[in-house]
Model the fold of this input.
Amino acid sequence: MSEHALHVVIIGAGLGGASLAHGLKRAGISVAVYEREPARRDGSFGFRVAIGPGGSRALRDVLPPDLYETFVATCAKPPRHLTIYSEGLDELFTTSLPVAGQAGAAAAVNMKSASLMTLRQLLLTGIEDVVRFGKEFTRYERRPDGRITVFFADGTSAVGDVLVGADGPHSQVRHQYLPQADVQDCGLVAAYGQVDLDEAARLLPWEKMLRGISLVRSRQGLSFIAQPMEFRWDSEGELKSHIGNVDAALIKTWPGMRYDTTRDHLMWGLMSSSRLFRAEPEALRGTGVVDAVADMTRRWDPALHALVTMTDPATVAATRAVVSRPVDRPEATKVTLLGDAGHVRFPAPGAGANATLRAAGLLCRLLTGAVTDQWPVVAAIRDYEAQVLGSGFGAGRSYWKCLSRKVRMNRPVIGPMLAAGTRTRLRVANQVPSLKRRVAGEFSWVQGGSAA
Done:
């Protein structure tokens, strides 16, 4: 097959793989996606992801216009506040978040809170004909004609001109293609869960916590985030009465709703050092995760502790946070990596998702340009890797610096000292407008990062 009749094989139907498939399909390039999960509903996809302006632009570029508008319509109600509390719910810092229609709100228009489950179902809409479920990648071989054969655990195989590994932080494609670019445990554990929004409303003492993003900074060095996720449909999946006609029409005609189990909830996430978590996160399931987090928050404000104990065990997960080991960028080939398969970033909400969406858009543009202008595909991949993977692997060093500070926050003596200093800084900034603006900017990651 000639390069101007390209066929791209993508391993993994997550945010990056599905976005790339949409863009290639719209450009008329043959593509096939192979996903190891057995079916469309399977996998842990129920948590919040913050899509910043860059991520929104990337989605708009690859999705059909009506599907992008459906993405906007299926996002949660935007948060109105960012507030930082102590574990006793003393307010340390608060700032309003701009919304569409307010002065200075241009960036906020593109800041979107999406359920990962909903976003996954949305991205699988319209590419059903090119996605194959139940396909676990095992290895690939380069053929004499320059093409690539991909093998799966069920004994089947597929052939393509380009192979894109979009199979997550423990990528099997990366393991074969770039074995030295492994990931390392960074000494942190992340846990997540959901509470029914009505139940949360009966627990939480402050109205602000039901209208915005709440961060808790404990003396132990634990970090906790909570955000209400309120959608345009009710607990039965029926549209709410106050929804506008345009949004109602988009959601009614969206076939992905039949697969989406997302309902109004308050999501929470906890970041801890491995030392404080005191359990093997991968061995915990359901109530085990709830019990572990409840034990860590037992001396917190009763409302926060109760919020954890009331968490639906079916919605929880806990995992060790990993980050890429910095390595030199490899010589470009017709095999490349996308998203966490290429570089696992600092574990902040939305950081990886937005970077992945932007990378998928870039790779789509470069491959499309190679086909249109009939220039070598390897040159397109070289440009992509120079902009994404090359800088990404190098940036791992700066991520390690950030992570080392987080780990220090969890140490017995220095941790409380650092936490006390942070609390004092937040209280002072809350009273000084110039400092407040600066500190608010430091927390842009809660809404998907910068506008890039």
